[in-house]
TrEMBL record:
SMART domains: DENN, uDENN. The keyword Zinc does not apply. Residues 24-284 form the UDENN domain. This is DEN5A protein. The gene is Dennd5a_0.
Length: 284
């Protein structure tokens, strides 16, 4: 039987510098987009522990759900705020595993990756020139607009562009906790504090590995009807498990549902649920 651990795995997903830039067809690749707007395959770079027998690690599922849109590239001109999301893996026997993922951006240090991105931009611009160069016999229209030398095209190309000599390239990366129960708020705090420790100029009091080991091996699941308080990198983290006589654990803010869907839609959804209608939520 599974031991009562708070978390089973710590996972890192991101760019595999050995395989390089691979288009991610599952996320709806569009080669008409500029290279910085395309999506590339992400991979599970590391996980700890390697495997636990009560919860076998599903590398394909975890990798896809940690970064469902694949890798994203940005430059210093783009916003690079971290974002958090959760997911559920449901197995054939109906058992569930919960995942909590914090995605952030870090600078690309591999010269090969930066060169590959620059090459993709050269190819994209060359194709753009071929498709958008006006016919040679259209001199009158050129002279009237003053764009015979392609100045309008070059302006479009420079928008959302990448120049290896001028720009700093950043790529998305993800740290994730795989847990047996859906303690969303606690997991979010753990991941945010770990990320803060990595990006802070001052190192944390203990090595990062010790905090990860603690959350995987020394923090237990709280018993039903009890709360649990344990130490994070920078402060305490608290979670509470409902008793068997209470409603099931739901650790997500209901406020966000109203913000995303609106009051009228939430009331209609609640009505449909009471009437046992089938409900489909469609999202990009």
């Amino acid at each position: 039987s599974a031991p009562g651990r708070f978390a089973d795995y710590f996972v890192i997903c991101g760019l595999d510098t050995e395989t390089g830039l691979e288009p991610d067809e599952l996320s709806g690749e569009n080669f008409e987009q500029t290279p910085l707007r395309r999506t590339f395959k992400s991979k599970v770079l590391a996980r700890y522990p390697e495997n636990v027998e009560w919860n076998p690690f599903d590398q394909d599922a975890v990798g896809m759900l940690c970064m469902p849109k694949g890798l994203a590239f940005k430059t210093q001109a783009d916003s690079r705020e971290p974002h958090f999301h959760s997911f559920i893996i449901t197995r054939e026997d109906g058992s569930r595993t919960f995942g909590f993922s914090l995605t952030f951006f870090e600078e690309v240090t591999s010269k090969q990756i930066c060169s590959a991105m620059q090459t993709l931009y050269h190819m994209h611009n060359a194709e753009y020139d071929i498709l958008h160069t006006p016919p040679t016999n259209d001199k009158d229209s050129c002279s009237s607009t003053g764009d015979c030398n392609g100045t309008a095209v070059s302006k479009l190309q420079r928008f959302n562009s990448y120049d290896i000599s001028r720009d700093t390239l950043y790529v998305s990366k993800c740290i994730c906790l795989i847990t047996p129960m859906s303690f969303m708020k606690a997991c979010k705090k753990v991941l945010e504090q770990l990320h803060q420790a990595v990006t802070s100029p001052q190192p944390p009091p203990l090595p990062l590995e010790s905090y990860i080991y603690n959350i995987l091996y020394e923090v237990p699941l709280p018993p039903a009807g009890r709360s649990l308080k344990f130490s994070g990198v920078y402060g305490p983290i608290i979670c509470q498990r409902p008793s068997t006589s209470e409603l099931p654990l739901f650790d997500f803010p209901v406020k966000e549902v109203f913000e995303l869907l609106g009051v009228e839609n939430v009331v209609q959804l609640f009505t449909c649920a009471l009437l046992e209608f089938q409900i489909l939520l469609y999202s990009q």
